[in-house]
Amino acid sequence: MKEGSAGQSRAPPRAGRLNFATNIPQLTTYTSSHSLRLIVCNMYLWLTPVAGLAILWFFYIRTHLPHFGADFWYILRSIKLGLRLFKYKYIKPFYSILDCFLDAARSHPDKIFLHFEGGTYTYGEVDKRSNKVARALQAEAQLQEGDVVALFMANEPSLVWTWLGLAKLGCPAALLNFNIRSKSLLHCFSCCGAKRIIASPELQEAVEEVLPTLREQGISVYLLSENCSVQGINPLSDKISQASDQPLSRDLRANVKIRSTAIYIYTSGTTGLPKAAVVTHERVWASSFLQAACGVTTEDIFYINLPLYHSSGFLIGLVGAIERGITVVLRRKFSASQFWDDCRKHDVTVMQYIGETMRYLCHMPKKENEKNHKVRIAIGNGVRSDVWSDFLHRFGDIKVKELYAATEGNVGFINYTSKIGAVGRVNFVHKFFFPFTVIKFDIAKEEPVRNSQGLCIKAAAGETGLLVGKVTHRSPFIGYAGNQQQTEKKRLRDVLKKGDLYFNSGDLLRIDPDNFVYFQDRVGDTFRWKGENVATSEVADILTMAYCISEANVYGVKVEGHEGRIGMASVTLKEGQDLDCSDAYKQVITYLPTYARPRFIRIQPCLEMTGTFKMKKVKLVEEGFNPANIKDLLYFLDLEKKTYVPMTEEIYRAIVSKEIKL
């Protein structure tokens, strides 16, 4: 065969030369590998300093911004919730929390909404029951959209579906404190304009006490009972059971808008009888978002043992649960001995508290299974730092979300970091939605400090001052129903510039350099005991009903180991009179709820007044109730003996050692 003919092998290419015809794959592999190495090298050169900066940034944040993560997620949630509220302001037709409940009843009708005393009620069942209530009230009470109805009921499921039934008719509900009686009870009807009251059977006696006056005022009384022999009280339960459970037309509440009144919640402010704070649908939505802001999910189970006539139990607890579409464990009243058993029985994951709640739980005898529960979040207010720490030590890693807010106020805080002792944390998003400032306050004069231009002075970082919230379109102050005078008292003008308007919280707070907020004290004529605000002038009015008492100066004093302040009164006696202990006891027991009754009375020859004829309290508060330090006669409200008894050092020691329970 000739050279070069078919089948003969070719000579290899010369060294150093590439045969492009036969080595294209090799060249491609060579080029790709080379480029890849270049890319990797370049990436390494770029990423090395970036990674270094990231590590430095991480340690900087960890050292100087330890709450960056919590701030970030809270701000993200706040913006999301703010956008939802913005949408609800303009969506047509108006979408209320009732519509949210109806959506939940349609999407998961068989999901348990309420656990109560061994019974369960699903979303679908509560929806149907509220339909029956609405139809019965339509027929019997002739209710029309906008009519205010007072609910005088304890914590029970019937309050929930009665309120929902009223909402379906477009009727605001006034949530009455079931502890109030007589003069206060009558006042609560008149200030909100309610012409109808619905009461629980167990409160019939309290209603009967004021029934003649109610009838004179043309107020219709309905009792959630099958029958009632008292003339003027109409049984309603039989009418409800016979009513249809079919859905009601949305047209019945066609005129309800976001700024319409949704409910009235009563609050004791600086002076006088309870005031009806106007809660709009906008405020209802904003309050309902607090659960979401605290990290509550649709899978949680929420435990409510606070009274539903308060904004904490009703707005944050019940309404917040509806917004989340979750299950609620409802209890008539708080029980420290059964609290954790309830939580274990119902797999509770979120609890509500006030400071007293946690203190009572921490004072219970220790048990081995104290951390055997599923509670992961606690939402509330008013817990002391030492009790907070003890609670976590006893009951495990529970995220405590301490709040600060007022029912009628336009500013509030959430301690979303769970920093012990703080009631909240300030960030730029919070200040955008709720503009506020803390101003210098003269405790002795009980008024803000003003400069030569008549303007208030901002408190320095870490300095205690009066919290005031700027009144804007985003953060309005609606005020109190039927009480323009008290509404005006809560308005503070010319704060930072002439003509501006702020809401006066009446609370002294401190914001530290790290932007944590701490509650310091209340000012004016209100103190807080057992989780309730007590208006001192109301208590004074009751005390002076006792024949022997001429004047009374009521204030709150601290008791070691207890939250808040307990009631005490400095009184003067009518000429020639001694303190009639039995009569004084009768007045406070008959007309004041337990938490408002003054446990100590101090007899003085005269009451000190300020230059503007206000009773001086600061020195009295400081002196307290220790008989060793006070020369005046002192008396103690002895519930066992059912009278006031002379205050002795033995009684004082028993109170301090907690042998006597307050």
Overview of the molecule:
Among the domains are: 426-471 and 481-521, Luciferase, domain 3, CATH 2.30.38.10; 526-656, 2-Layer Sandwich (GMP Synthetase, Chain A, domain 3), CATH 3.30.300. Helices cover 35% and strands 21% of the residues. It has 19 helices and 30 strands. The strands form 6 sheets. An 8-stranded mixed beta sheet has the order 2-1-11-10-12-13-14-15, with helices on both faces. Strand 12, helix 12 and strand 13 form a beta-alpha-beta unit.
CATH topology of the domain at 526-656: GMP Synthetase, Chain A, domain 3
- What is the β-strand count? 30
| Estimated share of beta-strand residues | 15-25%
Count helical runs: 19
| pLDDT < 50 runs, ≥5 residues | 1-25
Q: What is the overall silhouette? A: globular
Rg calculated over all Cα atoms:
32 Å
Organism: Stegastes partitus (bicolor damselfish)
Protein name: LOW QUALITY PROTEIN: very long-chain acyl-CoA synthetase
Question: Summarize this, please?
Answer:
This protein is of the alpha/beta class. It has 19 helices and 30 strands. The strands form six sheets. Strands 2-1-11-10-12-13-14-15 form an eight-stranded mixed beta sheet, sandwiched between helices.
